[in-house]
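Customer escalation, tier 2.

The customer says the design service returned an amino acid string that "doesn't look like it belongs to this structure." They asked us to rerun it and document both sides in this ticket. The original structure tokens are below, unchanged.
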């Protein structure tokens, strides 16, 4: 490596070079380095601590095509993962220093509160109940709840189909769709089946234990894309699900940093590129960049 870490500190241009050059380059003469880019953040801030550590833990899904799906590479891939990488890059941490922690819906607040992860980006709807325990940066996308059925199902055309009391629907514990669907289901105990992941719901649909799976349209579109001709959406979206990035409740500076990073990514095209390379391939619309909510 021709540039030392000290040289990389000298100018903004050198900083940029330092990050590019160190990412995955094993020729560095600085053998003790984690390969990160030294940035200047407020002393004691989460950003400074993470930058100094040179590594980060990110909570995301491992079973959601287009958003967070762990494939053959052994690392999750998708829009959420790409958004995480944009934030991690801005922290001066190389992508290979991200430890991904599988974060099913029901544990998201817990892993933020107990510090298992530094932030969560996991199709995570911003809502007031969750805001009692954690804080959200974003939104960075707005999804909407929908219903997945087998391609030849003509009986279920929307959530009202569950009012008759004979159809079973699957969702995930601790998710907003699991709560929302209760207002349509005649008998929750017999009709609503809950698992910890959407994968298990889709398996239950395949096996005929349930007639439908309900969650956000974009998650369902991922399953449709991965299984051509097998499933379809039953009708229109019937809720709004703005996706946020979960951080510790009192960490306003980190939240502000992530919101600034999102706005930068909206402006420089990296947010749109992240979408186009991932979930955008599955037929959902990105729409205009949502205004971040600096509450
Ligand atoms: N966006 C919804 C939620 O945060 C559903 C997706 C999910 O379970 O991750 O609960």
């Amino acid at each position: 490596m021709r540039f030392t870490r000290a040289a990389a500190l000298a100018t903004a241009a050198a900083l940029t070079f330092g990050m590019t050059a160190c990412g995955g380059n094993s020729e560095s003469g600085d053998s003790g380095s984690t390969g990160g880019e030294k940035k200047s953040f407020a002393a004691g801030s989460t950003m400074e601590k993470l930058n100094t550590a040179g590594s980060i833990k990110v909570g995301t899904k491992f079973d959601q095509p287009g958003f967070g799906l762990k494939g053959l590479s052994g690392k999750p891939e998708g829009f959420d993962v790409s958004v995480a990488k944009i934030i991690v890059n801005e922290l001066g941490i190389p992508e290979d220093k991200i430890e991904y922690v599988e974060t099913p819906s029901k544990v998201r607040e817990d892993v933020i509160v107990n510090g298992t992860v530094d932030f969560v980006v996991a199709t995570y709807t911003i809502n007031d109940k969750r805001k009692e325990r954690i804080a959200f940066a974003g939104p960075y996308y707005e999804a909407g709840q929908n219903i997945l059925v087998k391609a030849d199902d003509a009986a279920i055309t929307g959530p009202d189909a569950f009012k008759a009391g004979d159809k079973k629907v699957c969702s995930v514990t601790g998710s907003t769709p699991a709560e929302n669907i209760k207002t349509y289901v005649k008998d929750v105990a017999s009709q609503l089946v809950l698992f910890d992941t959407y994968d298990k719901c889709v398996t239950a649909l395949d096996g005929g234990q349930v007639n439908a799976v309900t969650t956000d349209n974009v998650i369902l579109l991922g399953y449709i894309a991965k299984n051509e001709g097998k499933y379809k959406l039953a009708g229109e979206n019937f809720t709004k699900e703005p996706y946020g990035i979960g951080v510790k409740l009192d960490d306003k500076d980190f939240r502000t940093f992530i919101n600034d990073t999102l706005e930068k990514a909206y402006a420089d095209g990296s947010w749109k590129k992240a979408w186009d390379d991932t979930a955008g391939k599955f037929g959902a619309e990105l729409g205009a960049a949502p205004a971040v909510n600096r509450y």
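Tier 2 assessment: The sequence is consistent with the input. Residues 1-34 have pLDDT under 50 and may be disordered. The radius of gyration is 21 Å. Sent an explanation to the customer and offered a walkthrough call.
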